[in-house]
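Hello,

Our lab assistant flagged a job as stuck in the queue for most of the afternoon. It eventually completed. Since we weren't sure the result was trustworthy after the delay, we are filing this so someone can double-check. Below is the sequence as submitted and the structure that was eventually returned. Let us know if re-running is recommended.
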Amino acid sequence: MTTSELPTGAAPLAAPDQKTAPDRLPVPDEKTVLAEIAGLIVTVLGEYAPDPADIRPDTLFGDDLELESIDLVMLSAQLQEWYGERVNFAEFVAGLEIDEVIALSVGRLVDHVVACLGAEPAAAPGPGAVRWS
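-- returned structure --
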C-alpha cells in the first residue's frame, strides 16, 4: 500500500524520534489505531462501508458492520499489509471462543493491535540454539 492508497481517516505512523530504538517505531495510541482500522474496514467494505467517523470501539463486526467471513479474510490481509507480521488477525481470532468471535468489537481489535505493536519483537535464536521443527 502506497501513501496515496492510505485508507480514509488513517494517518501514517510517525517516524522514530531520538528516544526510540533505531529498529522500532513508536507504538501508536488507541485513537490512531482506531482511525487506521476504521480506514481499513472502509477499504474492505467499499460502497457498503459506514462513514469512518461512525466506527467506534463498541462497533461490532457482525451486528453493526455486517462483515461476513470473506470480509474478515480481506480485513486480515489488510491488517497484515498495514501492520506487518506482528499483527496476526487469524491467530487472534483462532484464540477466541465462538461467542467471542460473534461479539467481536472494533475496540477489542484495537487493543490487540496496540498490544502486538508494543510487544518486543521475538529475538533471533543465539548461537547453538536449537529451533523447533
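-- support follow-up --
The delay was a queue issue, not a problem with the job. The result is valid. The chain has a mean pLDDT of 80. The two ends are 33 Å apart (CA to CA).
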